[in-house]
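// run 5 | inverse folding | seed 20
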């Protein structure tokens, strides 16, 4: 048997069972091996019947007088008496009629279950039992609990894993020997076995530590190897013109925050090198990333190079073009800006191409389709990628091929990942963090609302609107669907425009509208020709309307933590206090993440909490990426992450050849293709 074999290679697995295992994502023997338990029940202590206490217990006993009966239709009870040498205890099973025929009388069993009161007498309820042996799997141990599906329970999976135990025990080591010694790790085979069938709690902990370390180690190694490869590329140097930078800053309507100043400085440092910059700027929503990017672009443009500024949506591209245009106007450099998006007419596009070809327009703003466009890339000096998480190896190669050199890369993201994690996931990137917000920003007040109190809420909202403010309303769907009663954008729009806010100007915006319509509505809202904008999450990233102070999120329990944090970042920007109302879809208790949003405003802290709420492995927010998800490592375990990262660097410093560790080599090669996340 091999890891790559289908599950049907395991004794007892036919086509029917294989189909059910497939539902759990278990296709091969290797999948079974890596299908680590969700949790464990500790039934490891075998107690004499005379000393039982309520709670989970295990006894060693023979079973007598087993009898099943129907107490009413659909309710079957099996009762039995289990005895050790001295005492007896009742066993009770509900709806497990097969129990009666499955007991071998007179043979000793391990019996594990919940010892509790049933009809005024103590009994062990729904126990698992198996004949006494050296290697019980369902009883008398720390028992693994797996993800289950109809027809496949944990007991079934335990049996299968027990079957492949010889194969598990013969698995080769996957980490370098020196690392195992240094860290005093269990061997790979021992760790995998201990994940499924730990001898005790200490061994389980050791197994989790070793395998968690290994996951982060592989990830770090992959991204470090990428980093060293990128360092071999050549780029154009973009000199720093201090006078120009000072002039730009002197025309700003605000002073840069210290964080902005620091990050701009780091970027200028990078761009002066012949090695391409590869920097990620992380800053919470509203931390002022656009002006940072504009300052980077400024130097490239002044030096006569082209800059491609890519936004995730056309809407944002247009908005950026306007912002950048305004920022460069005082320097007389605004005519260097060109917008290039799909929604433009052919004639408009032709003009843009021409300006670019003549070398007059140098700062080209568009969506990520920009790098596919027929624009002259020969003098491309800088690429700015806003709010886009996938800019991987392939896109880089395309840029290289077009430009003949690797342009400097600057990525901006509002997905706040804790620094330790960013370093692991993005080891090949230099990470800058905009950790202070512009002064004078008050935190947005966030409140969970129940549909019963809609009237009171609307009264509060009306107050703000009367004071001249505007409101975003975000809905989870565009149209009402048959299956869902969740408020759709169209329905909410109708309700507000016709009834609740009929004296206000209400607009509707959603992803299925034509770009020109979207742009038109957005502009109306930006110019305050609309008071209320009802939309889907198209407005999630980047949209900047300083006069908007209210964000109402319908069916907020449908949204993720990161998403809501992004959304509420749209308000409270222009010096007006922001309000974010999280409307529940019904009057049930709000989930923990909404409560967290009510209490906390710091994106980084929320990111950490999100990691905790969603358990080990789930990588924060939109970064979720199946292939990168970790099975064992807790991303909140900073010590483990640091140790694994340091080990990856040590590994590289040793200059060893990856080929000598085939398992590791295969995994790292796979990861290298996906870790270029920015
Ligand atoms: P984000 O980081 O979310 O992309 P933006 O770049 O859109 O944020 O900036 C948000 C708002 O803050 C904009 O209106 C911008 O003009 C303003 N802003 C940026 N930097 C500062 C600053 N240092 N002081 C005051 N306002 C600023
Ligand atoms: Mg932005």
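// decoded
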């Amino acid at each position: 048997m091999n890891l790559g074999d289908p599950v049907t290679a395991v004794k007892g697995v036919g086509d029917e069972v294989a189909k059910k295992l497939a539902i759990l994502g278990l296709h091969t023997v290797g999948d079974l091996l890596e299908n680590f338990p969700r949790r464990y029940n500790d039934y490891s202590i075998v107690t004499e019947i005379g000393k039982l206490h309520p709670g989970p217990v295990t006894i060693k006993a023979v079973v007598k007088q087993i009898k099943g009966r129907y107490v009413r239709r659909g309710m079957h009870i099996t009762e039995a008496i289990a005895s050790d040498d001295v005492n007896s205890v009742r066993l009770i099973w509900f709806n497990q009629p097969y129990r009666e025929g499955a007991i071998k009388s007179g043979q000793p069993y391990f019996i594990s279950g919940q010892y509790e009161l049933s009809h005024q007498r103590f009994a062990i309820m729904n126990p698992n039992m198996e004949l006494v042996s050296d290697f019980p799997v369902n009883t008398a141990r720390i028992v693994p609990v797996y993800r289950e599906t109809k027809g496949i329970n944990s007991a079934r999976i335990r049996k299968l894993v027990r079957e492949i135990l010889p194969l598990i025990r013969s698995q080769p080591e996957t980490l370098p020997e020196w690392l195992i010694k240094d860290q005093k790790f269990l061997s790979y085979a021992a760790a995998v076995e201990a994940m499924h069938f730990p001898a005790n709690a200490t061994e389980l902990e050791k197994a989790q530590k070793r395998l968690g370390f290994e996951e982060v180690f592989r990830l770090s190694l992959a991204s470090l190897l990428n980093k060293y490869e990128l360092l071999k590329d050549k780029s154009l140097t973009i000199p720093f013109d201090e006078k120009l930078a000072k002039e730009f800053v002197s025309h700003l309507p605000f002073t840069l925050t210290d964080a902005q100043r620091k990050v701009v400085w780091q970027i200028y440092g990078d761009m002066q090198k012949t090695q391409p910059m590869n920097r990620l700027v992380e800053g919470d929503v509203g931390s002022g990333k656009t002006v940072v990017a504009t300052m980077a672009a400024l130097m490239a443009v002044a030096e006569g190079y082209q800059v491609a500024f890519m936004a995730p949506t056309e809407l944002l591209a247009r908005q950026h073009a306007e912002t950048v245009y305004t920022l460069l106007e005082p320097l007389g450099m605004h005519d260097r800006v060109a917008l290039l998006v799909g929604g433009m007419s052919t004639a408009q596009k032709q003009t843009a191409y021409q300006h670019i070809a003549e070398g007059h327009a140098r700062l080209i703003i568009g969506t990520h389709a920009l790098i596919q466009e027929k624009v002259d890339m020969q003098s491309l000096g800088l690429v700015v990628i806003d709010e886009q998480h996938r800019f991987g190896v392939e896109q880089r190669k395309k840029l290289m091929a077009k430009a003949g050199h690797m342009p400097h890369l600057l990525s901006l993201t509002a997905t706040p990942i804790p620094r330790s994690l960013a370093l692991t996931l993005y080891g090949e990137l230099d990470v800058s963090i905009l950790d202070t917000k512009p002064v004078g920003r008050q935190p947005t007040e966030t409140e969970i609302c129940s549909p019963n109190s809609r009237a009171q809420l609307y009264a509060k909202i009306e107050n703000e609107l009367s004071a001249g403010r505007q409101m975003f309303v975000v809905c989870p769907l565009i149209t009402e669907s048959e299956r869902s009663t969740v408020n759709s954008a169209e329905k909410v729009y109708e309700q507000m425009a016709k009834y609740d806010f009929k004296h206000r100007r209400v607009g509707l915006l959603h992803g299925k509208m034509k770009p020109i319509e979207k742009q038109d509505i957005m502009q109306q809202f930006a110019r305050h020709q609309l008071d209320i904008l009802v939309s889907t999450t198209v407005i999630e990233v980047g949209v900047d309307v300083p006069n908007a102070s209210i964000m109402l999120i319908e069916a907020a329990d449908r949204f993720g933590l990161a998403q809501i944090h992004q959304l509420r970042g749209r308000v409270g920007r222009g010096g007006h206090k922001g309000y974010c109302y999280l409307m529940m879809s019904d009057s049930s208790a709000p989930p923990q993440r909404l409560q967290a949003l009510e209490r906390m405003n710091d994106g980084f802290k929320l990111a950490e909490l999100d990691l905790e709420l969603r358990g080990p492995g789930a990588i924060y927010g939109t970064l979720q990426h199946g292939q990168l998800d970790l099975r064992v490592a807790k991303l909140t375990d900073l010590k483990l992450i640091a140790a694994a990262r340091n080990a990856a660097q040590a590994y590289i410093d040793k200059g060893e050849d990856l080929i000598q560790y085939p398992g590791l080599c295969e995994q790292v090669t796979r990861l290298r293709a996906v870790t270029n996340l920015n």
